[in-house]
Each structure stands twice: as structure tokens, then as C-alpha cells.
Amino acid sequence: MKISVIVATYNRINALDFVLQSLDTQTDQNFEVLIADDGSKSDTKNFIESFKLRTKLQIKHVWHEDSGFRLALIRNRASAEASGDYFIYLDGDCVVQPDFVEQHRKLAKTGCFTTGSRVLLNEILTKTILSWPKWDFEKFSDHLLSYRLSSGINKYWPLKIKLGDGAWRNYKKFVWRRIKGCNLACWKTDALAIGGFDETMTGWGHEDADFVFRLQNKGLIRKSGSWSTEVLHLYHRINDQSNAAENARRVREKILAKATSVE
To answer: Which residues form the Galactosyltransferase C-terminal domain (predicted)?
Structure first.
């Protein structure tokens, strides 16, 4: 099973650099990388081309013009160019652990998809890490406890303990909790069957919840990737959330329509 890791980015080269470096050191090498670029300037393209020269990763850069926050559209365009059987959606500011792809592969089961988890890094720690000459997971791991005690990270044990698969990971019904598009995996055939992300949902917020709801509505089982697939989410300022309420309303409308049809 070949995996396609679809990395969303927008004008943040230093973070994207560390994300790609972390993917370059995976224990599972059977994957490709598609960078879903929501309209970054030309320096991002130049960086990606230079990174290709120093990596063994298979990388494809999928870009469209900057016309506001159109994450759903660029993810769909990158998905259309992916050759893998299984998709892992990742954000360009989420550095991964060395076994990230391996752990997602272990959780990949027919009829299921996985919503992964994240560890939040604060602004101070993010600046410190991005000042390193290169990404170094061992160096990061050596200081986990001090990072937690100083509130540099918001979780400790999920980075120290990995749990296997089991029925305890399965959600029984749709809930908004822990849906993060920055760490989300599903089969290509299932993504295509629901038409991918809803491209009419523009602006920040809830296109990932809509995607998850429609996958579950199709009859798929949602699995939790917690204690297995945690990513290290670098700090960034809060995005413009002016469209979030409207996007959330549209998702709730779909949920209500489903509940009404069942009754």
C-alpha cells in the first residue's frame, strides 16, 4: 500500500522546511509527498525545488493563485495528483515523529479512516526550535519533560507511550471533538467517493469536520489516532475566523438533515 502525504502550506517556509525534514527521516519509506500550496509566493516554490535536490522524498508541488483561504480546493487538487492508495492530510506547520507514517499505516483498515492528534507548541518553544540548524527529533525528545513543565508543549505522555489498534479507538457516532485536518487519514477511494473536501467552504474553519461527517455518513468507522500519530504543531497566530461561524452552521445543517432522515 503506497501512501500519499498531502501537506498544506501557505507562505511559511521555515516551518515547511522542518516538516519536510521530519518526513525525510521516517521509518516507513513507502510514501510520496504532495505539497498543497494555497497560493504562496515564488520563494516557496524555489525552496521546494532546492529541497528536492537534497532529499530522497518523492515531492510534487501543487499550487494555485492566492485568492483567499481555499484550503479545501487545493487539498482536492493535490489529492487528484496523488498516486497513493491511502491519504494522510498534514499541515505545513506540523512536524512529525519518525514513526508517523508507520503508525498511520498500522491504523489503516478497510472501512475506516483516522483522525490523528497533535501536541501544541507555544510561541517561545516554536521560535527556539525553528532557530535550530536542522530538525532533530532526538534533541527534542531529550527535553520533553522540561518542555512540558515550562508549558512549551501541552502534552507529554502521548509522545512517550504508543498504544496499538483496538475497538477502543472507534467512535460510535459523529462528534466534533478532536477533528483536526492537520492530521487526518483515509483511503483514496473513500475520499473520492464523497467528492473530497467541500470546495464551497472558503475561509478558515470546519471544512475538516464536514469531511469527517460525510465519511461517517457514508458508513465508515472513524478511528482515533491519539497515543499513536501525534504531530508537533508549531505555534502560529490565530487565523482570520470570520467565515468559521457560517462554515460550522453548514455542517450542523447537514447533521440535522441526517438525523431528520433517520427519524
So the answer is: 173-223
Q: What is the pTM of this model?
A: 0.93
- In tens, the pLDDT along 21-37 reads 999 999 999 999 999 99
pLDDT of amino acid 240 = 66
Q: What is the dihedral of CA 204, 210, 215, 218, to 10 degrees?
A: -160
The CATH number linked to 182 is 3.90.550.10
Burial 161-175 (b: 16+ CB within 10 A, else e): eeeebeeebeeeebe
Selection from 97, 256, 87 nearest residue 185 by Cα: 87
Number of structural domains in the chain: 1
8 Å CB contact between 35 and 64: no
pLDDT tens column, 131-174: 999 999 999 999 999 999 999 999 999 999 999 999 999 999 99
Cell numbers linked to 169: 479507538
pLDDT, tens only, 56-98: 999 999 999 999 999 999 999 999 999 999 999 999 999 999 9
> Which domain does 59 fall in, by range?
3-262
SS3 149: helix
% the chain with pLDDT above 70? 96
**139 φ, ψ to 5°?**
-60, -45
C-alpha cell at 19: 516538516
Encode 140-153: b = buried (16+ Cβ within 10 Å), e = exposed. beeebeebbeeebb
